[in-house]
Amino acid sequence: MIELIVFAVAGLACLAGAVGVVASSNPVHAALSLVGTLFGIAVLFVAQLANFLAAVQVIVYAGAIVVLFLFVIMLLGVDRVEDLRVEPLGGGQRVTAAVVAAGVLGLVLTALASTGWDATGAVGEVDESVPDINQLGEALFTRYLYAFEITSLLLVIAVVGAVLLSRRVRGEQEIVDPGQAERQAEITDRIARAEARASATNGSDDEDVEREPTPAEEVRS
Amino acid sequence: MTAAIEVTPAWYLVLGAVVFSIGAFGLLIRRNPLVMFMCVELMLNAVTLTFVTFSRMVRDTGGQSIVVIVLVVAAAEVVVGLAIIVALLRKRPGATADDVAILEG
Questions:
Q1: What are phi and psi for residue B75, nearest 5 degrees?
Q2: How far is residue A51's CA from residue A35's CA, in Å, rounded to a whole number?
Q3: Inside any domain, residue A87
Q4: Of B11, B42, B93, the CB nearest to A7
Q5: CA distance A193 to A199
Q6: B-chain residues within 8 Å CB-CB of A153?
Q7: What is the pLDDT of residue B76?
Q8: pLDDT computed for residue B48 by the predictor
Q9: Which of B58, B86, B89 lies at the smallest CB-CB distance from A124?
Q10: Which of A75, A84, A114, A189 is 20–30 Å from A56 (CA)?
Q11: Which residues of chain A, if any, have pLDDT below 50?
C-alpha cells in the first residue's frame, strides 16, 4: 500500500514536472518544473532500493545541472515570456511532433505488452541483503573499470571544451546586426545637434573654447 | 476488503516511457535552445529510471552501473551544451534553434 502511494505521488510529480517543462512559456519556470521531475525520479529510485543513485541524482541533477541552467538563464537575460501560441512551431510541426511522440510511446508500450508486462529474462544473483552502494562500488571498480576511467577523460575534455567555447575572444565583433552602424551614426548625430543647440543658447560663456568635433562630424567630414 | 494493488516493475517502465515521450514531444515543438536542452534531460532521466527498474527486475547491478555513467555523461553534455548556447545567445540575443548556423566560422 505504501509503495502504491509513493509511486502515485512521485509519478505525479514526474509527469507534472515533465508537462511543466514542455508547456512553460518562461524558461525559469521550465527549469523549476525540471526539478520536480528530477525529485520524483529520485524518490522512485529509493522505492527501487537504489539509494545511492537517488542521492547522486539529487546532488548532480538538482544541485548542479539545474543550477547551471538557472545561471545561464539569469546571466543571459533570456527569462522573458514567450508566446506559446506562436513560439512552438505552428500547425504542421506540432502535429508531426505529437504523432512522433505518440508513436514512440506506442512502440515502447507494445514491446512491453508483448512480454505480458513482465519484460525480463535472465535473473542475476544479487544478494539484496548487501547494501546497494557496496554492490555498485564493486561492479564499477572491477567489471566496469575501463568505462569508469574513460568517464574521467570525458570530464576533462568537457571542461576544456566549455572553457574554450565560452572564452570571449578579444576584438571579436559582439553583435551581428545589419542596421547597427546606421543607428549608431544617427544617435551620435542627434547628440551632436543637441550639443550644438545647448552651446548656442549659452554661447557667450564658452565662445572662445575650442570645441572638439563630435564623432558624427568626424564621420561626415 | 479488496486486495491491495501491487506496484509491479511494469508501472515504472510505463512511467519512464510516458516521461520519455513528453520529453521527445517538447524537443520537437520548442525552439528555445535552453528549453530543448531541458527536454533532453527529461528523456535521459526517463531512461535512467528504466535502467534502474530493469536492474531490480533482473537482480543485476549492471543497470545501476550504467546509470552512474549516464549521469557523468549528462553532466559533461550539459556543460558543453550550455557553453554552446551561451556562445549562441551572446552573438544574437533571443536566438532560436534555427539560428545555430550563425556560429559558423
A1: -65, -45
A2: 18
A3: no
A4: B11
A5: 10
A6: none
A7: 92
A8: 95
A9: B58
A10: A75
A11: 206-207, 209, 221
The dihedral over CA atoms of A20, A24, A28, A29, expressed in degrees to the nearest 10, equals: -50
Judge contact between B37 and A109, C-beta under 8 A.
no
B9-94, CATH topology level? Helix Hairpins (1.10.287)
Instruction: Quote the number of domains for chain A.
Output: 1
- Kindly report, residue by residue over B49-61, the tens digit of the pLDDT: 999 998 888 888 8
pLDDT at position A49, please?
87
> CA dist B89 to A89, A156, A175, B38, B43, Å?
20, 25, 10, 16, 24
Q: Collect all residues of chain A within an 8 Å Cβ-Cβ radius of residue B20.
A: 104-105, 108
Residue written as cell 522512485? A44
pLDDT tens across B54-97, in order?
A: 888 888 888 899 999 999 999 999 999 998 888 888 777 777 77
- The pLDDT tens digits of the residues spanning B13-54 come to 999 999 999 999 999 888 888 899 999 999 999 999 999 998
Q: What is the distance between the alpha carbons of residues A19 and A22, in angstroms, rounded to a whole number?
A: 5
Record the cell numbers describing residue B11, joined without a space. 508501472
Residue A198 lies in a domain: no
Enter the C-alpha cell of residue A114: 508483448
Instruction: Find which of B15, B100, B102 to mutate to test the A interface (most A CBs within 10 Å of its CB).
Output: B15
Q: Which of residues 66-105 of A touch B (CB under 8 A)?
A: 68-69, 72-73, 75-78, 80, 82, 87-89, 93-94, 96-98, 100-102, 104-105
Q: Is residue A5 part of a domain?
A: yes
Q: In the predicted model, what is the mean pLDDT of chain B?
A: 86
Q: Which of A45, A76, A123 sits opposite B59 (nearest CB)?
A: A123
Residue A94 lies in a domain: no
Interchain CB distance below 8 Å, B64 and A136: yes
